[in-house]
Amino acid sequence: MSGSTTISGAKAPAASRRGETRAVQRRLPLNITVHVVLITLAVLVWWIARDMVSVTRTLRDSSRLKYELAEELKNDWRISSAQIVPVSLDVSGPTKRINDFASELDDNPGRYSFLYRIEPDNLPPDARGKKQVTIRVDLSRLPANAEGGIPAELNIRPLTGDKVYEVTLEAFVTRRAWVDLSTNVVGSVPGYQWKASVPADTQLQVRGPAGKVDALTGANEMVRLVISRLDVGEFAANKAATLNRPVEEVLGQDSKHSTIVSLVPREDIAVQQVIPSEAPGGAPRAQPATQVAVEIHFTREQDWIRVEGRFRVNVLLPNWLVQKGARVRDIENELPVTLRVLSSQRANFTDRNLRVVVDLSQMSESDFLIEAPDGGVGRFVAKPRPQMYYSLLINRERLTVRYPGEGVTDERYLQVSGLSIEWTE
């Protein structure tokens, strides 16, 4: 009899279990490989999708706007505000393209820029006669300058928003000028006095930005210029050496010599010399000037002597006191005067060349302390409120003088004390 017997719970033979293990091991590597490949493909798809998706990004201050003057305006105007200003951009396109473009702008902001050329037609109608004008710029109307071209995938436009782009122009002005020789002309020549001056027919003017010219303009409505250092002692010695003659022989008793000296330059200021026209009624012309002629007048020093004399005092009254028949009291009729004069002019120390005056001619009633009689009728006495001085009127062509003390001048030779004026009404 044949049949089969089943034994419950019996373990499989060892050989059977080893076969199943090898089958599982063969399946596991395949599953891991598939997952890795899928993950890699997903990352790749995400990476590609990220670079291909169009986005908009603002690149702050990544571009530049440059202002430039047309040639026709450069002689009359200058740009006084910033000539190059930053501009922000709105850029649309694939992220990678935008990142590459932004990196290029970081290295070179001029890679994508704007140029605004200021033409005569851009000036305001009332610009003539003004020292400064401001022009507003519509950036959206300006074409962009792109070095190396623009990637086709990118859309670029300037970000304006609330920002206003303006450029300020400053006008050039012309003003008369004079040369100050008081500081940079130095030195001495033993036995000589000297005086330096610019020839009277020298006409100078300056041209430059209105603000700078105004700042240099003095109360005389002229611009002060200075020269580089001029030593008159060195000048005289060099001229004598060039002529191979003694200094005294070159300068003589009284002589005038000329030399050319450089003007000290001033930033943004052009100095011009005005040359009169040779044609009758012709317009003068201006040519650049970096130097100026300086004349030095040498005079041999003479001996000074002390002189004394007594001179009649003249009191000059105002018209309102003259009309009252006023009389001057309590003042010297004559005043002793002591001066130093050139010995060669000793004989000129006379009342023909020197007068002593007390000048009250410009004084009003308020300048006097007036003592009036009772009832307003009788003797009036007036005394000047300010301190009065004896003044000397000197004929300088005949008399060269030096005062013995400091602070003494022609107008204030000596104080007047006790002066009073009387009249009767």
Question: What do these coordinates show?
Answer:
The chain is α+β, with helices and mostly antiparallel strands. It folds into three domains: 52-163, RNA Polymerase Alpha Subunit, Chain A, domain 2 (Beta Complex), CATH 2.170.120; 172-300; 304-424, RNA Polymerase Alpha Subunit, Chain A, domain 2, CATH 2.170.120. The chain has six helices and 27 strands. The protein has helices spanning 14-52, 95-107, 210-216, 232-243, 247-251, 319-322; strands spanning 54-69, 77-79, 84-94, 112-118, 132-137, 144-146, 155-158, 165-180, 185-186, 192-197, 204-209, 223-226, 230-231, 254-262, 270-275, 285-288, 291-300, 304-316, 327-329, 334-342, 354-359, 368-371, 379-384, 389-394, 401-402, 414-415, 420-424. Strands 2, 5, 8, 11, 12, 15 and 16 form a seven-stranded mixed beta sheet that branches. The longest helix is centred in the N-terminal third of the chain and has 39 residues, at 14-52. The chain is elongated, with a radius of gyration of 49 Å. It starts with 13 loop residues before the first helix and ends with a strand. The relative contact order is 0.08. Mean pLDDT is 86; it is low at 1-12.
Summarize this, please?
With 425 residues, the chain is of the alpha+beta class.
Notable characteristics:
elongated, 40% strand, disordered N terminus, seven-stranded mixed beta sheet, 425 residues, RNA Polymerase Alpha Subunit, Chain A, domain 2, alpha+beta, single chain, 3 domains, six-stranded mixed beta sheet
